[in-house]
Batch of 4 targets.
Target 1
Amino acid sequence: MLARYARRFLFIEFAIYGLAAAALHELGLVWPAALAVIPGFAILARCVGVGATFIVAAALSTSAERAQTAKHGRLRLVTAEILWTTLTFSVLMPFPRMFSRPDSRLPANPAILPVLLVHGYVCNSGIWTKMRRFLEKVGMPTYTHNLEPVYAGIDEYAAGLARRIEEICSRSGAARVVIIGHSMGGLAVRAYLRAQGPARVAKLITLGTPHHGTRTAPLGLGLNARQMEPSSAWLVDLARDERSLPALPVTSIYSSDDNVIVPQESSLLDGARNVRVSCIGHVSLAFSAPVRDMVLAEITAAG
């Protein structure tokens, strides 16, 4: 569903740019120059959009929370986040079937734990294209799942995750899966664990998940955004209910330079192995080579 909406948004966006180019032509600009404005507008819009997330994150952070990153590091950080955000929201998410598939291409092998990738807020499985290809290349059977409806309460995703996990276990012959959740995806998995228990899960790995909420959540739409606000009743109840669940290995990988999760230390989870990285943006966590290596090591340890 989100892919369809993303394609419509792209069409509307570029139609507006096309009208702007036609207007410039009417004002005397030759067609080649007028048409060159279209990609220029698109690039500018994406630079402004991603840049705004860093400005908002800095504005919502206290002076003690702000990461001290060198100038060249900040430039690399912002440039990479613009690149991966543009690729994700303008290509991979609108056209996920062109670049990925929901089920593993590897033959069923009960001896190898399958991996389930769960995306975050207002995303779909397209964000996992690079991570999925990497894991499949090294022999890890990898599956994806889309969380829908887009703006539902996080608990509503638990039933879909339960069905998907049972389907993966049936297809692979494995009794358990390793789950990787990006951003809100990590909270959706925790909601599933609260509802179903950890019997089918060998390990949970979260990337940039706001386990204690994020100050940027009030800017979002939907019940799930309200539930990700710091100290929300939903987060408090989730943490309380988890105390009665059997222990499950959890690793939380987060970035001290995250431009969406504020404060970044919100990703620290009691009882988990918390791993901090730096100079990596929020969307970039799903594409970063060092993060992929960490994820592979965590999966291997679970197996």
Target 2
Amino acid sequence: MIQEDAVKPNITQMLHEWSSGKAEVMNELLPLIYDELHKRAAAYLRRERPNHTLQATALVHEAYLKLIDQRDDSWQNREHFFAIAAQAMRRILIDHAKNRHRRKRGGSNEDLPLEEALLAAADETNVDLIALDEAMAKLAKLDPQQERIVELRYFGGLSLDEAASALGISRATAARDWQVAKAWLHRELTRRN
């Protein structure tokens, strides 16, 4: 679970205050959530191919703008906020890949490396991000919770404990869903090749 100790400002409390209309709290909250979003985006993009055209700062700015529009949401806690941020980053990355593919006019889809754990493979494998999104959409129809675990872990950079907390499930359930989802996605993505 993401730790919030007494020395650091309580982001969960600040999110609650902001959601309930205290706009002045945003001045304190903004740098905290921005820094955390940037760390997560940078960590995610470090796992991608080296010549990725989207930089962490651009990803954070786009995600932040989407999150600010959702200000009326009642943020349950810090994990909930960053789970929504993971969804926003996923959509941005998928849109970026689709737009790049369209600009290539007939070129192949953009291949991006998918973390080893997701594919449960020993070798480094490239996966088409658009194909991953399509596979995740299929997984969501079969088991929405498994799809959310993958989204939170892969796109949001949340640990297993953080993902479990964001979904309100036990760590054991999250671990089981993560393992099953990885195997299902591996099968689905390798079937395409």
Target 3
Amino acid sequence: MPVVLEDEIDVLTREARRIGARLHFTPAGEYNGVRLYRWIIRGACPFNRNGRCTIHEIKPLACKIFPLAVNLKTGDVYLSEKCLWVRLNGPRPLDEFPAEKEALKRLLVRLGALR
């Protein structure tokens, strides 16, 4: 269940309506005054078609950083064991994920955790 920013909900909801899907979100708290929500995905992501993201350019930052994960309390960045690729291939240096690292930087800036 990815954590999304409030403005990302509008984008996701609009795209879901376009394909006839319904999305569900629950509040997940705040970080530095930024409201966070859990995107409750039951089953597969409605934007996944044949293993491909149909909203790749506008998908939420949580999806763009995957398989990276961050603990906002400690600042630790790690590879998520929820990722099948990571489970099959083992840990790798974070430098092997440049696009994901860039998305993580954008997320941390949005949360006010990085300038």
Target 4
Amino acid sequence: MDVARIDWAAVGTALGGQGFASLGPLLDAEARATLAGAFAEDAPYRSHVHMARHGFGRGEYKYFRYPLPAPIAGLRTALYPGCAAIANRWAERMKQDVRYPEAHADFLDTCHAAGQARPTPLILSYREGDYNCLHQDLYGGIVFPLQVVILLSEPGKDFDGGEFVLTEQRPRMQSRAHVVPMRAGEAVVFAVNERPVRGTRGDYRVKIRHGVSTLSRGARLATGIIFHDAT
């Protein structure tokens, strides 16, 4: 986990241009194996969701309980300040009153004071034929505008298909889709709900949704780091 080497200026430029950016590899093979191996356990998690039961797609995911696993807790804390600086610039451009504090602990205090106290980092498991419908991870009235996904499995080796996808809905335009290439251990940061886009008459808002395409072979695991907590 080497967050210090992240070029946040380049990340901000990529996010502004397409709504997502690679943060590079942030989990090594040992950390990935530990997280993946714990998926079958019950103790680390507060909730277990089977997507098909709710019309979310096919596959399953589990929300971690507090205290979070060390790699997830460490990354959630370390990645937040760089993301918060970008989030504050976006808020200014979209003329939003909200401003995000520099430290993640202070932001969580705001979430918890508003009744959003359940941890949202999660691990997701897909097998052949599974997929995740396009969606947004909002969870309450307080929403941090960026989140991170880290792939735990190796494309082409552990699975085929199962691409991470994003769609953008611009006003009075058809949706634009992105297929985001990822390698095992790589982290991608992306917009949770909306992002500002510069137009001829100033900034306007673009709605973002994300999902996972159908797995054609094997098994795929990923972990998601969401910075706001849930009601």
